[in-house]
Amino acid sequence: MIDGFGRSIDYLRISVTDRCNLRCVYCMPPEGVEWMDHEEMLSYEEIIRLCSLFAQVGIRKVRLTGGEPLARRDLPELVRGIHAIDGIESIALTTNGLLLQEQLPALLEAGLTAVNLSLDTLDRAQYAAITRRDALDQALSGLYAALDAPGLRVKLNCVPMGENDAQLVPLADLAREHDLAVRYIELMPIGLGGSLPRRTEEEVRAMLEAAFGPMTPCDESLGAGPGHYFTIPGFCGKIGFISAMTHQFCDGCNRVRLTATGFLKTCLQYETGRDLRTLLRDGSGDEVLLEAIRSAILHKPAQHHFLDATGRREDERHNMHQIGG
To answer: What integer pLDDT is reported at residue 325 of this predicted model?
Structure first.
Protein backbone atom coordinates (compact mmCIF):
# COMPACT_ATOMS: atom_id res chain seq x y z
CA MET A 1 0.00 0.00 0.00
CA ILE A 2 1.37 3.38 -1.04
CA ASP A 3 -0.02 6.50 0.60
CA GLY A 4 -0.62 9.87 -1.04
CA PHE A 5 3.00 10.92 -0.47
CA GLY A 6 4.61 7.82 -1.96
CA ARG A 7 5.40 6.09 1.34
CA SER A 8 5.10 2.32 1.52
CA ILE A 9 2.92 1.35 4.50
CA ASP A 10 3.83 -2.11 5.80
CA TYR A 11 3.67 -1.79 9.61
CA LEU A 12 0.53 -1.96 11.79
CA ARG A 13 0.44 -1.22 15.52
CA ILE A 14 -2.60 -2.73 17.24
CA SER A 15 -3.77 -1.62 20.67
CA VAL A 16 -5.61 -4.55 22.26
CA THR A 17 -6.73 -2.78 25.45
CA ASP A 18 -6.68 0.55 27.25
CA ARG A 19 -6.09 -1.18 30.59
CA CYS A 20 -2.73 -1.12 32.31
CA ASN A 21 -1.24 -2.32 35.61
CA LEU A 22 0.95 0.81 35.87
CA ARG A 23 0.02 4.50 36.09
CA CYS A 24 2.97 6.21 34.40
CA VAL A 25 3.08 9.98 34.82
CA TYR A 26 3.21 10.67 31.06
CA CYS A 27 0.33 8.31 30.33
CA MET A 28 -2.34 8.52 33.06
CA PRO A 29 -3.46 11.10 35.63
CA PRO A 30 -2.89 10.27 39.32
CA GLU A 31 -6.61 9.89 39.99
CA GLY A 32 -6.79 7.12 37.41
CA VAL A 33 -9.07 6.83 34.40
CA GLU A 34 -12.40 5.34 33.44
CA TRP A 35 -11.78 2.14 31.47
CA MET A 36 -13.77 1.43 28.34
CA ASP A 37 -16.34 -1.36 28.44
CA HIS A 38 -15.13 -4.70 27.12
CA GLU A 39 -17.83 -4.61 24.42
CA GLU A 40 -16.28 -1.43 23.02
CA MET A 41 -13.01 -3.22 22.28
CA LEU A 42 -12.49 -5.31 19.20
CA SER A 43 -12.69 -9.03 19.81
CA TYR A 44 -9.73 -11.18 18.85
CA GLU A 45 -11.79 -12.55 15.96
CA GLU A 46 -12.40 -9.01 14.70
CA ILE A 47 -8.71 -8.11 15.02
CA ILE A 48 -7.63 -11.24 13.14
CA ARG A 49 -10.13 -10.52 10.36
CA LEU A 50 -8.81 -6.97 10.00
CA CYS A 51 -5.21 -8.19 10.07
CA SER A 52 -5.95 -10.54 7.18
CA LEU A 53 -7.30 -7.58 5.21
CA PHE A 54 -4.35 -5.38 6.13
CA ALA A 55 -2.05 -8.16 4.91
CA GLN A 56 -3.82 -8.01 1.55
CA VAL A 57 -2.86 -4.35 1.15
CA GLY A 58 0.77 -4.86 2.12
CA ILE A 59 1.06 -4.93 5.91
CA ARG A 60 3.92 -7.28 6.80
CA LYS A 61 4.79 -6.35 10.38
CA VAL A 62 2.40 -6.24 13.36
CA ARG A 63 3.03 -4.87 16.84
CA LEU A 64 0.65 -5.46 19.77
CA THR A 65 0.37 -2.64 22.30
CA GLY A 66 -1.99 -1.39 25.00
CA GLY A 67 -2.39 0.04 27.59
CA GLU A 68 -0.55 -3.05 28.69
CA PRO A 69 -1.34 -5.79 26.14
CA LEU A 70 -0.56 -8.63 28.56
CA ALA A 71 -3.36 -7.37 30.81
CA ARG A 72 -5.85 -8.74 28.27
CA ARG A 73 -6.63 -12.42 28.70
CA ASP A 74 -5.37 -15.09 26.34
CA LEU A 75 -3.13 -12.82 24.27
CA PRO A 76 -1.20 -15.84 22.89
CA GLU A 77 -4.38 -16.85 21.07
CA LEU A 78 -4.38 -13.53 19.22
CA VAL A 79 -0.69 -13.96 18.39
CA ARG A 80 -1.42 -17.43 17.06
CA GLY A 81 -4.23 -16.16 14.86
CA ILE A 82 -2.14 -13.34 13.39
CA HIS A 83 0.83 -15.65 12.90
CA ALA A 84 -1.32 -17.89 10.68
CA ILE A 85 -2.11 -15.06 8.22
CA ASP A 86 -0.29 -15.26 4.90
CA GLY A 87 1.99 -12.29 4.41
CA ILE A 88 2.59 -11.40 8.07
CA GLU A 89 6.33 -11.71 8.63
CA SER A 90 6.77 -10.57 12.23
CA ILE A 91 4.68 -10.10 15.38
CA ALA A 92 6.15 -7.91 18.10
CA LEU A 93 4.94 -6.90 21.55
CA THR A 94 5.41 -3.65 23.48
CA THR A 95 5.04 -4.27 27.21
CA ASN A 96 6.00 -2.96 30.63
CA GLY A 97 7.22 -6.48 31.41
CA LEU A 98 5.33 -7.09 34.65
CA LEU A 99 3.46 -10.12 33.28
CA LEU A 100 5.99 -11.14 30.65
CA GLN A 101 7.96 -13.82 32.48
CA GLU A 102 4.82 -15.88 33.10
CA GLN A 103 3.31 -15.48 29.64
CA LEU A 104 6.42 -15.55 27.46
CA PRO A 105 6.58 -19.33 26.81
CA ALA A 106 3.03 -19.37 25.41
CA LEU A 107 3.66 -16.22 23.37
CA LEU A 108 6.80 -17.70 21.81
CA GLU A 109 5.00 -20.94 21.00
CA ALA A 110 2.23 -18.91 19.33
CA GLY A 111 4.66 -17.08 17.05
CA LEU A 112 5.91 -13.94 18.81
CA THR A 113 9.14 -12.70 17.22
CA ALA A 114 10.14 -9.56 19.17
CA VAL A 115 9.63 -7.73 22.47
CA ASN A 116 10.06 -4.06 23.33
CA LEU A 117 10.08 -3.50 27.08
CA SER A 118 9.39 -0.03 28.48
CA LEU A 119 11.68 0.88 31.39
CA ASP A 120 12.67 4.42 32.37
CA THR A 121 14.90 3.74 35.37
CA LEU A 122 16.70 1.01 37.31
CA ASP A 123 16.24 2.85 40.61
CA ARG A 124 13.45 1.27 42.61
CA ALA A 125 12.19 4.43 44.30
CA GLN A 126 12.26 6.38 41.07
CA TYR A 127 10.48 3.57 39.23
CA ALA A 128 7.72 3.70 41.83
CA ALA A 129 7.48 7.48 41.45
CA ILE A 130 7.27 7.36 37.64
CA THR A 131 4.88 4.39 37.39
CA ARG A 132 3.08 4.91 40.73
CA ARG A 133 3.67 1.19 41.39
CA ASP A 134 6.48 -0.62 43.26
CA ALA A 135 7.04 -3.23 40.58
CA LEU A 136 10.62 -2.87 39.32
CA ASP A 137 11.50 -6.46 40.25
CA GLN A 138 8.69 -7.83 38.07
CA ALA A 139 9.71 -5.63 35.15
CA LEU A 140 13.32 -6.81 35.38
CA SER A 141 12.21 -10.44 35.62
CA GLY A 142 10.31 -9.95 32.37
CA LEU A 143 13.31 -8.31 30.73
CA TYR A 144 15.73 -11.08 31.67
CA ALA A 145 13.24 -13.77 30.62
CA ALA A 146 13.06 -12.12 27.19
CA LEU A 147 16.84 -11.88 26.96
CA ASP A 148 17.13 -15.58 27.76
CA ALA A 149 14.64 -16.60 25.03
CA PRO A 150 16.51 -18.00 21.97
CA GLY A 151 15.90 -16.05 18.78
CA LEU A 152 13.74 -13.35 20.35
CA ARG A 153 14.64 -9.77 19.35
CA VAL A 154 14.65 -7.57 22.45
CA LYS A 155 14.66 -3.78 22.78
CA LEU A 156 14.38 -1.60 25.86
CA ASN A 157 12.51 1.71 25.54
CA CYS A 158 13.30 4.62 27.88
CA VAL A 159 11.65 8.05 27.90
CA PRO A 160 14.19 10.67 29.13
CA MET A 161 12.34 13.22 31.27
CA GLY A 162 15.08 15.09 33.11
CA GLU A 163 14.27 13.56 36.46
CA ASN A 164 15.69 10.22 35.31
CA ASP A 165 18.95 11.71 33.93
CA ALA A 166 21.08 9.76 36.42
CA GLN A 167 19.59 6.49 35.14
CA LEU A 168 20.22 6.97 31.43
CA VAL A 169 23.80 5.68 31.63
CA PRO A 170 22.97 2.61 33.80
CA LEU A 171 20.19 1.69 31.36
CA ALA A 172 22.56 1.99 28.40
CA ASP A 173 25.05 -0.22 30.25
CA LEU A 174 22.60 -3.13 29.93
CA ALA A 175 23.64 -3.31 26.27
CA ARG A 176 27.25 -3.95 27.30
CA GLU A 177 26.60 -7.55 28.35
CA HIS A 178 23.33 -8.27 26.54
CA ASP A 179 22.38 -8.40 22.88
CA LEU A 180 19.62 -5.82 23.02
CA ALA A 181 19.00 -2.32 21.77
CA VAL A 182 18.54 0.29 24.50
CA ARG A 183 16.53 3.09 22.93
CA TYR A 184 15.78 6.61 24.10
CA ILE A 185 12.43 7.98 22.93
CA GLU A 186 11.80 11.71 22.95
CA LEU A 187 8.66 12.52 24.90
CA MET A 188 5.90 13.76 22.59
CA PRO A 189 3.33 16.38 23.62
CA ILE A 190 0.33 14.06 23.52
CA GLY A 191 -2.05 13.96 26.48
CA LEU A 192 -0.17 14.26 29.75
CA GLY A 193 3.14 14.21 27.92
CA GLY A 194 2.57 17.78 26.87
CA SER A 195 3.07 19.12 30.40
CA LEU A 196 6.29 17.25 31.25
CA PRO A 197 9.94 18.18 30.61
CA ARG A 198 11.89 16.22 28.03
CA ARG A 199 15.45 15.52 27.00
CA THR A 200 16.52 15.74 23.36
CA GLU A 201 18.56 13.13 21.53
CA GLU A 202 21.57 15.43 21.57
CA GLU A 203 21.37 15.88 25.33
CA VAL A 204 21.11 12.14 25.98
CA ARG A 205 23.86 11.30 23.51
CA ALA A 206 26.19 13.77 25.23
CA MET A 207 25.56 12.06 28.58
CA LEU A 208 26.26 8.62 27.11
CA GLU A 209 29.40 9.67 25.26
CA ALA A 210 30.73 11.31 28.42
CA ALA A 211 30.41 7.91 30.10
CA PHE A 212 31.34 5.51 27.30
CA GLY A 213 33.23 7.51 24.68
CA PRO A 214 32.23 8.28 21.08
CA MET A 215 29.38 6.30 19.57
CA THR A 216 29.51 5.17 15.94
CA PRO A 217 26.38 5.33 13.73
CA CYS A 218 25.12 1.92 12.68
CA ASP A 219 23.54 1.35 9.25
CA GLU A 220 21.99 -1.96 10.27
CA SER A 221 18.18 -2.03 10.37
CA LEU A 222 16.93 -3.30 13.73
CA GLY A 223 13.20 -3.56 13.10
CA ALA A 224 10.22 -1.97 11.44
CA GLY A 225 10.25 1.41 13.13
CA PRO A 226 12.01 4.78 12.83
CA GLY A 227 14.84 4.21 15.32
CA HIS A 228 18.45 4.92 14.35
CA TYR A 229 21.28 3.19 16.14
CA PHE A 230 24.85 3.51 17.37
CA THR A 231 27.53 1.08 18.45
CA ILE A 232 29.90 1.48 21.41
CA PRO A 233 33.21 -0.43 21.58
CA GLY A 234 32.92 -3.42 23.89
CA PHE A 235 29.10 -3.52 23.84
CA CYS A 236 27.18 -6.61 22.73
CA GLY A 237 24.09 -4.56 21.96
CA LYS A 238 23.35 -1.16 20.49
CA ILE A 239 22.05 2.25 21.53
CA GLY A 240 19.11 3.72 19.65
CA PHE A 241 17.09 6.90 19.43
CA ILE A 242 13.55 7.65 18.32
CA SER A 243 13.48 11.42 18.05
CA ALA A 244 10.18 12.60 16.62
CA MET A 245 10.64 16.07 18.05
CA THR A 246 14.18 16.99 17.00
CA HIS A 247 14.77 14.60 14.07
CA GLN A 248 11.40 14.36 12.34
CA PHE A 249 11.12 11.15 10.33
CA CYS A 250 7.66 11.60 8.80
CA ASP A 251 8.96 11.41 5.22
CA GLY A 252 9.83 7.75 5.84
CA CYS A 253 6.89 6.79 8.06
CA ASN A 254 5.68 3.28 7.26
CA ARG A 255 3.06 2.73 9.97
CA VAL A 256 -0.59 3.05 10.86
CA ARG A 257 -2.37 2.28 14.13
CA LEU A 258 -5.51 0.40 15.06
CA THR A 259 -6.94 1.38 18.44
CA ALA A 260 -8.61 -1.08 20.80
CA THR A 261 -11.98 0.36 19.70
CA GLY A 262 -11.25 -0.33 16.04
CA PHE A 263 -10.32 3.18 14.90
CA LEU A 264 -7.66 3.28 12.17
CA LYS A 265 -5.24 6.11 13.02
CA THR A 266 -2.91 7.07 10.23
CA CYS A 267 -0.80 9.50 12.32
CA LEU A 268 -0.16 9.67 16.05
CA GLN A 269 -0.62 13.47 15.98
CA TYR A 270 -4.18 13.52 14.66
CA GLU A 271 -7.60 12.20 15.63
CA THR A 272 -8.48 11.78 11.97
CA GLY A 273 -8.76 8.27 10.52
CA ARG A 274 -11.48 5.69 9.91
CA ASP A 275 -13.85 3.82 12.22
CA LEU A 276 -13.50 0.18 11.19
CA ARG A 277 -15.40 -1.25 14.16
CA THR A 278 -18.72 0.20 12.97
CA LEU A 279 -18.18 -1.26 9.52
CA LEU A 280 -17.33 -4.65 11.02
CA ARG A 281 -20.36 -4.74 13.28
CA ASP A 282 -22.73 -3.44 10.61
CA GLY A 283 -21.91 -6.55 8.59
CA SER A 284 -19.76 -4.94 5.92
CA GLY A 285 -18.06 -7.31 3.51
CA ASP A 286 -14.33 -7.55 2.93
CA GLU A 287 -14.36 -5.26 -0.11
CA VAL A 288 -16.03 -2.46 1.86
CA LEU A 289 -13.49 -2.83 4.64
CA LEU A 290 -10.59 -2.98 2.19
CA GLU A 291 -11.76 0.22 0.51
CA ALA A 292 -12.02 1.96 3.89
CA ILE A 293 -8.47 0.87 4.75
CA ARG A 294 -7.08 1.92 1.36
CA SER A 295 -8.81 5.29 1.52
CA ALA A 296 -7.56 6.04 5.05
CA ILE A 297 -3.98 5.12 4.17
CA LEU A 298 -4.11 7.10 0.92
CA HIS A 299 -5.01 10.20 2.96
CA LYS A 300 -2.37 9.67 5.65
CA PRO A 301 -1.05 13.13 6.68
CA ALA A 302 2.29 14.29 5.34
CA GLN A 303 3.77 14.98 8.77
CA HIS A 304 3.11 15.87 12.38
CA HIS A 305 3.36 19.41 13.73
CA PHE A 306 4.31 18.75 17.35
CA LEU A 307 6.52 21.83 17.39
CA ASP A 308 3.63 24.09 16.37
CA ALA A 309 2.43 25.41 19.72
CA THR A 310 -0.83 26.79 18.31
CA GLY A 311 -2.38 23.35 17.79
CA ARG A 312 -5.16 22.37 15.40
CA ARG A 313 -8.70 21.21 15.90
CA GLU A 314 -7.95 17.72 14.54
CA ASP A 315 -5.15 17.14 17.08
CA GLU A 316 -5.26 13.97 19.16
CA ARG A 317 -6.90 14.63 22.55
CA HIS A 318 -6.71 11.14 24.06
CA ASN A 319 -4.01 9.94 26.45
CA MET A 320 -1.43 7.43 25.24
CA HIS A 321 -3.02 4.42 26.94
CA GLN A 322 -6.11 4.97 24.79
CA ILE A 323 -4.37 5.06 21.42
CA GLY A 324 -1.52 2.58 21.76
CA GLY A 325 1.48 4.92 21.50
So the answer is: 55
Kindly tell me the burial class for residue 163, based on how many C-beta atoms sit within 10 Å of its own C-beta (0-12, 13-18, 19 or more): middle
Question: Cα–chain-centroid distance for residue 233?
Answer: 28
Residue 194 has a pLDDT of: 59
The residues, any chain, with a CB within 8 Å of residue 178's CB and separated by 6 or more, are: 147, 154, 236, 237
Q: Which domains, and CATH codes, for the chain?
A: 11-323 (3.20.20.70)
35-60 mean pLDDT: 96
Task: Give residue 315's pLDDT.
Answer: 54
Taking the C-alpha atoms of residue 226 and residue 63, their distance in angstroms, rounded to an integer, is 14
Query: For position 322, what pLDDT does the model report?
Result: 53
Helix, coil or strand: residue 85:
coil
67 is in an annotated binding site: yes
Q: Is 158 annotated as a binding residue?
A: no
Query: pLDDT tens digit string along 158-204?
Result: 999 999 999 999 999 999 999 999 999 998 776 665 567 789 999 99
Confidence band of 317 (pLDDT split at 50, 70, 90): low
Ligand-binding site membership of 270 (annotated): no
Predicted local confidence at residue 308, as pLDDT = 60
Annotated ligand binding at 24? The verdict is yes
Give the SS3 label for residue 64. Answer: strand
Which of 248, 121, 231 lies closest to 181 in space, CA to CA?
231
SS3 label, residue 136: helix
Is 250 annotated in some ligand binding site? yes
DSSP 72: S
- Check the annotation: does 118 bind a ligand: yes
Sheet with 273-275: strands ordered across: 216-218, 228-231, 238-242, 181-185, 153-158, 114-118, 90-95, 61-65, 11-15, 255-258, 263-265, 273-275
Q: How many C-alpha atoms does 189 have within 13 Å on its Cβ side?
A: 14
Do the Cβ atoms of 200 and 246 come closer than 8 Å?
A: yes
